[in-house]
Amino acid sequence: MASIESGFIKSLDVYDVRFPTSLQLHGSDAMHKDPDYSAVYTVIETNLAENSKGFGIAFSVGRGNEIMVKAVEVIRPMVVGQKLSYIFNNFGKFWREIVQDGQLRWLGPEKGATHMAAASVLNALWDLWARIEGKPVWKLLADMTPEQVVNVVDFSYLSDALTKDEALEILKANKPTQAGREQKLLSDGYPAYTTSTAWLGYTDEILIEKCRTALKEGWTKFKMKVGADLADDRRRATVIRREIGYDNDLMMDANGRWDVEEAITWMQHLTEYKPLWIEEPTHPDDVLGHARIAEAMRPHDVGVATGECCSNRVIFKQLLQSNAIKFLQIDSARVGSINENIAILLLAKKFNVAVCPHAGGVGLCEMVQHIIMFDYLCVSATTAGRCCEFVDHLHEHFIEPVVIKNACYMPPKNPGYSTEMKENSVQDHIYPDGQVWAELISSGKVSK
């Protein structure tokens, strides 16, 4: 900790990094037909001689990424010059200072572009802290005492559902058995499911090819996109079930496409395909709508899953209090970084709801693996009925990409949050002047 005591934040830079995934329709769904997977890439540098930098990411699907970049620039003066000891010795307090800034919070509070920009900055700080301590983030968290864990969390607005004392009880109860789970995690990894096989824009030939390849690789859990056209959904579900059978799990994801009653009616035509869950059936803020859909789906044994577009811990609290979800899907860059996600994990444990993280995008798999591994070790203490999303796109741009073995995430070994991107990848994909975008724009393949 000596380096933390003597260190301070010297600079913060942010980059608008975008990948032209829309050209191949990677990531396409009922609401996002032509996404260009993008990162708000934050680089924090300190005065330290070693482990002096931290790298953070927030994710978008193209247009609007520049808004979050600007928001990071607005947050920058709150971070540059701060002592590392001030930040990390009471991270929950510092987190609140960032997300509840007396002027900036008017643009939220704790939601939207400013909150996601804060996540990029905070993710960089977590990466920095873990590098200084010489541990991957999952291990940094796992080695904390329960008291240290709750110290990084802001429990405001949660006391009617979860108190700080209850959180401590959860964490303390799991400590005696943690070592055994850690050994199992290191040997077996954390179970995953794949979304790479069934983007909405894929042809049947691509669906079949990708399903067959995934089966050969050992995948047993598959997710398909639905919601644009019911007849097409039924046809594609028939193709996928024919390939993967009914011994493997199939999940469906509407990406918030439907109104409440429309979701219920639509899904009644898809229950014959035995989906494990319907994900994001309606608007992410509609807690009561999710509850109504969940009630209608229970007789069909179809769970409701959501979370990737939930703005903050308060929405998750209400979803849990309303019995609106069977599967809770945290995201590493939608809410306020690890700090807020720990609060959400503890809420899920209190309400006995399985956490199945959202991932994909740019760096989301790399980050969220750390969070769900911490959940397994210290919060839920189980992998039963749980799995973490995997999307096989853009990992080649990272210094330490995810490692999948037997359809499981293997624990990262290097210090940090697995967020550092290759320098040439960053420079080539800066929008709009990086080499990749300059060539696409000049050739007329995309417009600026």
Short structural description:
The protein has 448 residues and is of the alpha/beta class.
What report would you give on this structure?
This protein has helices spanning 2-6, 65-79, 84-88, 91-99, 112-133, 137-142, 146-151, 164-174, 178-188, 204-216, 230-244, 260-268, 287-297, 313-321, 337-350, 364-379, 423-429, 435-443; strands spanning 9-18, 38-46, 53-60, 190-194, 221-225, 249-253, 275-279, 303-306, 327-328, 354-355, 388-390, 404-405, 408-409. Helix 15 links the parallel strand 9 and strand 10. The strands form 3 sheets. The chain has a 6-stranded parallel beta sheet, with helices on one face. Strands 11-4-13-12 form a 4-stranded mixed beta sheet, covered by helices on one side. Strands 1-2-3 form a 3-stranded antiparallel beta sheet, sandwiched between helices. By secondary structure, it is of the alpha/beta class. 43% of the residues lie in helices and 14% in strands. The mean pLDDT is 96. It starts with a helix and ends in a 5-residue tail after the last helix. Helix 12 (260-268) runs parallel beside helix 13 and helix 14 (313-321) runs parallel beside helix 15 (337-350).
